[in-house]
TrEMBL record:
It comes from Roridomyces roridus. Residues 971-1261 form the CHAT domain. It comes from the Eukaryota. It holds the Pfam family CHAT. InterPro entries: CHAT_dom, Sel1-like, TPR-like_helical_dom_sf. This is CHAT domain-containing protein. Gene3D superfamilies: Tetratricopeptide repeat domain. SUPFAM superfamilies: HCP-like, TPR-like.
Amino acid sequence: MEDQDRVLVAQCHFVVGELLKACWIQPDSECQSFLSYSYQLSTVQLHLWGRDEACVKLSAHFGISLEFRENAENLDQAIQHFTRALSSRPLSHPERAMTLCYLAHDLQARFHRRNDDADIDAAIEYYRAAARDPSAPVTPAFLKELVISLRLRFEQRRDPHDIDEAIVIMRQFLDAHPAPHLRRITYLGDLAFLLKLRLEDSSGRDDNSDIDTVINLRREAVALQGSTHPDGSTTLTELGAALRARFEIRRSTDDLEDAIQCHRDGLASSSSHSDRLRALTNLATAVKIRFETQGNVDDLDEIIQLWREEASLRTDVDRYGTLRDLGGVLEVRFDKRGNKDDLDEAIQHRREAVRLYAALDSTRSQLLRELSYSLRERFQRIVSAADLDEAVQLARAALVPCATEETGTYLRDLATNLQLRFAHLGHPHDIDEAIELYRKVLVHDPPTSLTLSNLSIAIQYRFDHQGNPDDIDEAVELCRKSLDLSPADHPKRSVLLINLGAALHSRFKQRASARDLDESVDLHRQALQFDAQSRSTFLSNLADVLQLRFQEFGLKSDIDEAIALYEEAIRTRTRHNQYRHVVLHNLAYALLRRSRKGAKDIDRAVQYFKETLDARAPPDPRRRNALNSLAVALVERFTQQHHTDDIEQAIRLSRESLDLCPDPDPNRSLYLLNVGNCILFGAKVSQSPADATEMGISKLREAAEYGFCAVGNRFTAAGQWIMAHILNHISALDAYRTRIHMLPEMASFSLNLNSRREVLTKGEITSLAASSATFAIQVHQPEVAVEFLEATRSVFWAQALSLRPPIEHLTNVRPELAANLNALSRQLELASFRDTLEASPTATQSQLISAEAETARCRKLAQDWQATIAEVRALPGFEDFLRPRGINSLRLATLRGPVVILLANESASSALILTSRDVVHLPLPAIKVPELEMQVQHLPRSTANESMTRLSAGRERFVQKSTEETLRIHLADLWVKLVKPVLEALKLEKSSVPPRLWWCPTGIFTFLPIHAAGIYDDKTGTDCVSDYVISSYTPTLTALLDRPPVPPETDTLKMSVIVEPHAPNCAPLPGTLTELSIISKRIPSSELTVIHSGTGEQVMQHLRQSSIVHFACHGVQDANNPLDSGLILSDGRLKVSRIMQRGAEDSLSSEGKGTGMLLAFLGACETARGEKGTPDEAMHLAATLLFAGFRGVVATMWTMDDRDGPKVADDFYAHLFKGSSSNVATADLGKAAEALHLAVANLRREPGISFSRWVPFVHYGL
């Protein structure tokens, strides 16, 4: 082809390309004739000059293109023609640059349609090539197209080089068009837009200086346009947007105010519908930012007005977004001002938004979700069940079209609505479904601290209404996990702390663990430090737990602080606030409780309770609690001010509250209790007091026996029922019996040892033994008094012993059931020795989770054990299996001699003398409890020579040493007022071979040396207990039953002697070596095992194998934790708890206890000294060894002199082994008490031996 022909072909291709491009861009009928004629002419020219076959085919193919002008293939074909034209135009061709621009333009257009990266890359390269072509200048329009292409690719790939190049080109344009050029305003806007894009880029390259340039460019455009320019409104709006952007960066209030003014000016100058809509939107947005920053509620008024107008201007197609925004800001204004009309209008707009947006996609889900939220908010303020039902329905509907990645959010919303409906209407299926939905969220989304916390709150709700202990443990565990997942700076950490505190608060109400309550207080205090915005709520939460702690422990500073916190919380809440009445109610209770301590708060309490009740109109489910609370306050005011109207109103209100709490409900017991109390108080002014009393007591009985609630609530109700004895009501004995039967459940096996012991230190439990027995005596039932004392004392040991049940007979009847019970008992016993870490201040949440999981396992074991016991009791002949022993069984403890139970009471002390025939009540009117308390204070804690005692060094000395004369006086006092009357009642005389007698002291008597009471006068002679009887002690009657039998005297006995003369950090005990030497002479070496400076583990291994175990070492009684009391060995303290644990391990062993563990001699200090807080629990080493299986124990009530150990041991074993030979050790272990009796008598007769040296030695058991 000739050059001339090639040029003509290129021109034809170019023309065809232009025509096709026109067909694609502008397919209207006006250009139909011209385009058809031009196309046909160009096609003819291609036929004439196009010599190759491809060109001919190409021309023929395009013959039908005009019929499909809107088809994208036209654009493809245009690009092909421009590409052919470009290939035919060499670099020097004057029209090459124009062809490059046209081709680039069409490639850019195709990129818009197909988003093919290759098109935009090629377009940019062709534009750049055109700009570099020296043959012809490129028009500004095509350079702007290059800028557009660079911007498009930047938006696609975020390559900063693209936006930088575009900005450079636009700056060149701007520089080339100074004012007053007409296009400068356009270029100012284009450059500002590009700079804004770069500013918003997430690459972080910019130093934010671009925003200043953008604002300057926009300001210049505004100035050039003047006030009458048709685009003035748009430019002002864009300037306002730029100022808003700079405010977000630098937080300058001036920028925000300038932005608002620009938007106001833009709105005022808007001339078109679209300009006004844009101006309204931007002004509302800017004012909303100012409200969120400064909190001026008046701004909300303007925002609402602007969005109302915007909504009126928009068509149905795009109005839903404005309605959505308008609904949101109306809700905010409602929250600030409390005008119900705002909330109603918000719901109306949200409904309209849902109606207008019919597409089933994620936007519709969001609209449904927001409407559901608004209805939920209205329900919480107005309590309309219809609103809440609709909120639930909408939340369900929102789940259908929601995006998969948002499913978790919508599941949470539905769960929240169901949880709220349960809280207000109490339908169990709602909370069950809510919990299941929260669990699905955990499956759908990775666990987060907030998701776990939400689930924990729902489970806690269910626990509060249904009382399942598994629920509250899971709630606590989930709360701990949520805290573990959240770093210290987590924005919601305060909420997580509060939730855990609330769960522990709830668990305390069921289990009364002081650790739970103290941790809850600490968590609420921590939360206050994190979140200032929620301070009011957090203040109230902290006040709640402080009030509860005051209720339990009575510390006045707790209730004073709680009231101050409530009052501060109320000051920060407006009167319409939905939570104000919750805080007001709790404040009223705090005032009520403080009024019981003498404060003048009762009238305020009643006033606040009435205000709360007024806010809880039917059918609000919280109304029953408000009714009950007001009734309680009115009763209290009646007791203080004696207004008959108060008690009459209280009775009516309490009955109404009970009617609103149908069975089953874990709170019903409390409502029954309050009704009963109200009626009993009303009986004082009733016209039919007998009927009223009967009705009131029946309600108290029902409350105490109501099984669907925590044992603590029933225990409290039984305590109120017990007060019936004041009214001389016959049921008081049943009340005591009911309360006593709850003691094992109060000290449940699900608790570890320390926790069980702590439960038993509570005053209402420690006083139960004396009060119940005293009442039984008053109604002339001494046998019942004995049963009550047996069931209320040494509960700790009774619980432990029940885990070693007698199963021989059961094995014969139901061997598989016996085996199951035995296995469960052993597992449960070992589990009770677990380390819970609860007391450790350094324990992490993960460690606490693990410890509480073990607690849950232990509780499950306890439940299985209880169920198995119930199964056993269902068998004929096993109805009383492991039930408290009755009097007929307890009398068996007297087969070897009488047992004297000593009972100290503020009103009247007495003795119950139990023989094989009957129980005799012996009043002791001369015994006064205050005098006994003084005697206990004067008892010696040490002998005259402290350095010579076997008391562990380093322990605090709490009292000064008593004098010999003081002790002489106290022993004489005990003789005259207590012991001599008992001996006379038993008609006992002095004897050289005195009979056995067991003392079973209770309360303060457990600290007194009853066995040593007497007149010790050098002139007139001696008249004392040991002249009449051989004394032994027993913590309970049961401790004398089911003991191992005494082996025949001919049996060979194994003995272990443990001596520790040089314990770490203790004074040396040279006497222990002398003691060992003496013992070695009394028993053949083949039968004797000596552990000299051994470890605790070595000692424990020999306990079970030895018939007799003798300790000669230091001992200590731990006043803070009696379970840490013990014997001091070479490797430290052998604690009570460790000996107990070994007993459990031995019972689990297939070898059993063997033939050992018959007699223990504790030649150490304080081995029979109990704990002041729980004197009836016998928390000392002597009792521990009885529990571990020993038949008898020799111990000391206080410190012993190291010099006396060898003397007492020599005489003791001389009598015990007097039938032994040099090769065979035989002894009558039934004479251990007699042996100690003689040994102490010999010590007493030695010159210079003080009371404090011989009195401490005592014998426990058989």
